[in-house]
Amino acid sequence: MLAYLRAPRPAVLDACVEDPEAVVGPRSASGWTVAWLPALEHVSRFERAVVIDLDEVEDRVDLWIHSGGDTVGWYWEPQEDPAVSGAGAEQIESDATAAAARRSAALALHRTLDAAPDAEDPLIDLLVGRPPAETLVDMLRQLGDLPASEPPLPVRSVVIAHASAEASRHAGALAAAELGDVVLADLGDGWTALVAQECPEHGDLLAAAVGTMVRTPGRGARRRRVLMLWRGEDGACGVELYRGQDVLAAHAWGTGWQQPSCADHESRDSVTNELLPASAAEATDLPRLRSLIRSDDRDGDPLAELVAVLALPPAALALLDRRSDAPASEMLIPAGPWSIVRSLLTGRWFAPIAPRWALIAYGVLCLGAALLLALLAGTKFAALVTDGAVVGDPAAAVGDWVFLVIQGLGTVLNGIVGVGLLVHARNAD
């Protein structure tokens, strides 16, 4: 649930440090700190709070106000009259009672937020309309000078991988079939970059797709690791590390948001340890990297410092920032249906989906099945063209031809899947 707390940000961070689900945002000039909390009980620690919860199960919006040690709540559903909740909550049925409840909620909000005098009527109108949670949050932010309810979104991103241009081109083409225009750039030294031009804010989807499809060279922890660098509004930026479609580590600077339970040095150093195998440096400056990841704000450009510490290609930042010295890029043609089907059948360009022994076992099993079906199909074909002389049975029916076709298809499909699994096994752990 979304909570606006009348307290300094450090106090909110301290209060939520033991809660692994709590996320704390910035504080506005009016003195309100925003946070996402898992339970309403957390707000009792603060003098004043406004909490908004969208109950997706019952499709209703809950508005809670905590002030002076008391917590009172209202809820409403689309096209339904609001109700007052709390101790002895009862459903509001009459129009007069509903109007009184709305006015009571608006006045309580006005007092708690210390809003301007001319905000009272808009607050009443807002609750009369029984708005959805998103509209309620937007209007309260305007009327009460509250901070933004979400971290800054990426507006530009670049996905980089230590992989061949051929592999990245194929992965980007497959991703372009879903994400729209994707461009590919060769960064040199075996590094490639991909940018989703139509939806740069969804670089995470591109990174997950590339992480799933691209096999980077080498063995062990470095394999299939893909980095996404992003920039957001107001100077926010960050890095996400993918292995396959899973996010192994992520960190951001300048967002104003923090997860208190993961802000300790041990948690931050675990991010550092995940980033280390992705480093191209012969000897990574570990103290500098730790200092960078332990900070939430940094003088200068944190991404430039990260690129330098990990010895990543500087051209990646030029491409991200759309500078004039950015490397040349090519627009990828989205993969057609046949390319997608071929990749799914053969496993080509996809990260291994199982341990090597399992892939080899299933591959050999499929090839054995293909060989057996081929022998059966050959025998059946010989029997049909010789009118049964090969097997000593001259009878031939339509069903025999049907079985021949099925055996032929089974031979081809099992052969393709078996070869694809063995190709997969070459790069599996």
Would you kindly provide a written description of the structure presented here, covering whatever features stand out?
There is one protein chain. The strands form two sheets. A seven-stranded antiparallel β-sheet has the order 2-3-1-4-5-6-7, sandwiched between helices. Residues 80-94 and 216-223 have low confidence and may be disordered. With 429 residues, the chain is of the alpha+beta class. The longest helix is centred in the last third of the chain and has 30 residues, at 356-385. The protein has 13 helices and 14 strands.
Offer a concise description of the structure.
The protein has 13 helices and 14 strands. By secondary structure, the protein is of the alpha+beta class. The radius of gyration is 30 Å and the shape is extended.
Which terms would index this structure?
7-stranded antiparallel beta sheet, 13 helices, 14 strands, 429 residues
